[in-house]
Design goal:
The chain has 446 residues and is mostly helical. The protein has 20 helices and two strands. The longest helix is centred in the middle third of the chain and has 24 residues.
């Protein structure tokens, strides 16, 4: 196999006035997979209103912060720095492209549906690849996107494909045993091997650009999602942060597995004290959000203040063998980020109202799979209910191969269809197929 350069794509194309990395960004921005994210849950259903981020607005902000992180590192270190080159190089356009792509594999309803599809593929179908949103994102950009007639996928550069690989390993091969995340299915092994071939020394370590995308994702999750729920008067900053104690922060820091937070070489008590007595001061808001100009300006200042601290705190890892990541944060901003993520997760994801909504969403995903999987059989009179793109068309091709009776192959196609729906499309399709909301014959899904 010929080892590619960073700017190489699998399919050679005539050059234009853009750099290869800017062309990658444009391809992602104009892809239907990216545009679908406007209707996909970030934390709550997009139908709840514009007060909440959806997956598309989240991804746009991850791209912006990822770009700023890359620019900050280039200010701190010369571009030919040996560590930068060791980690694969750095280009802000590549980080931004990866940020746009990082969530395109997220199914309707977000992580709760991801878990359900994984359960179906592992337990019902016995497919060891399961379902993983990150692996689905890589599958979309290399296989499922239909931007070109001559080849599948978006034909991204080697650098961009690596930057998308937040977890550069297959199912069950994660070196961090406490997490079940992975970034690629075995069906995309050839594309994965091609993309990773320039970096055999990195093994299971993500490239620098992937690490920056991942860090930007954490920053936006911690700040903007928290802000959303304060504005909706669901999360009470006035009690959550006014009452936080040093011992509580120490326990949060001890249990975290964030690889950008190097806790071995610091005094956790000192860091926790600095976090509670100063670093979280902007969150010490003494009243609920009322929507006044003062409230709005304060939240804007809060967002700017913390994101600036996070970006300024980014640095290259000194010891890749120990840290297993190209990027780390200074101890105090890293600790603040850990605390914000922990407080949001533990407060929001235990709320009965959200759990009730998620239970219904799991039911929708399960029903859709069973109905579409039964219809996917070559003998089924109902196969035409399956949308053509990445669904019925692929099934018809499968019928002509020796794998036509392969249950796992059919199930993977059905999962591709379901994971390509928006929240509203999934609910409408479920309503029709179960008879609860027949809709109109003029309605179009997919």
């Amino acid at each position: 196999m010929e080892i590619p350069e960073r700017s190489d794509s699998r399919i050679k194309r005539k050059e234009d006035n853009r750099t290869p990395f800017k062309r990658d960004y444009d391809r992602l921005l104009y892809s239907s997979a990216f545009n679908r994210l406007t209707g996909v849950t970030q934390v709550v259903n997009p139908a709840e209103g514009l007060i909440f981020h959806n997956r598309l607005t989240h991804s746009i902000k991850v791209a912006q912060i990822g770009t700023r992180l890359a620019e900050r590192l280039l200010q701190k270190y010369p571009e030919d720095n040996k560590r930068i080159q060791y980690y694969g190089g750095i280009n802000p356009d590549v980080v931004s492209t990866a940020a746009l792509a990082h969530d395109i594999g997220t199914p309707p309803f977000g992580h709760i549906a991801e878990q359900k599809l994984n359960e179906i593929m592992l337990d019902r179908i016995k497919d060891p690849d399961g379902f993983e949103g990150n692996a689905q994102s890589f599958r979309i950009v290399t296989k499922l996107s239909a931007a070109y007639t001559a080849h599948s996928g978006l034909n991204l550069t080697c650098a961009s494909l690596n930057a998308i690989l937040k977890y550069p390993w297959f199912a069950g091969k994660n070196p961090k045993k406490e997490s079940k995340k992975y970034g690629v299915y075995t069906s995309e092994r050839e594309d994965f091997d091609w993309a990773r071939s320039p970096y055999p020394h990195l093994s299971n370590i993500k490239t620098l650009e992937a690490a920056l995308m991942d860090l930007a994702d954490d920053m936006i999750y911690a700040i903007h999602d928290l802000e959303d729920f304060y504005r909706a008067n669901i999360i009470p900053f006035q009690t959550m942060f006014n009452e936080i104690k040093v011992d509580e922060v120490i326990e949060i820091l001890k249990k975290t597995n964030e690889n950008w937070f190097i806790k071995d070489d610091i005094d956790l008590e000192d860091v926790a004290l600095r976090v509670t007595k100063g670093a979280l001061e902007y969150f010490n808001i003494g009243k609920p959000y009322e929507g006044t100009r003062v409230d709005y300006n304060y939240l804007h200042s809060l967002t700017s203040q913390y994101l600036t601290q996070f970006i300024d705190g980014v640095q290259l890892s000194n010891d890749i063998e120990r840290d297993k990541t190209p990027v780390i944060l200074d101890s105090v901003p890293a600790a603040v980020l850990v605390v914000l993520k922990d407080k949001f997760k533990n407060y929001m994801f235990t709320r009965p109202a959200l759990l009730r909504q998620q239970l219904g969403e799991v039911k929708i995903i399960g029903d859709l799979f069973e109905i579409l999987f039964e219809a996917s059989s070559s003998s089924s009179q109902w196969r035409r209910i399956i949308p053509p793109l990445n669904g019925r068309e692929v099934l018809e091709k499968l019928d002509k191969t020796p794998q036509k009776d392969d249950i796992a192959a059919r199930a993977r196609i059905v999962v591709d269809v379901i994971s390509g729906l928006s929240d509203q499309e999934a609910m409408r399709l479920h309503g029709r197929l179960t008879g609860s909301t027949p809709g109109s014959i003029f309605d179009f899904i997919m």
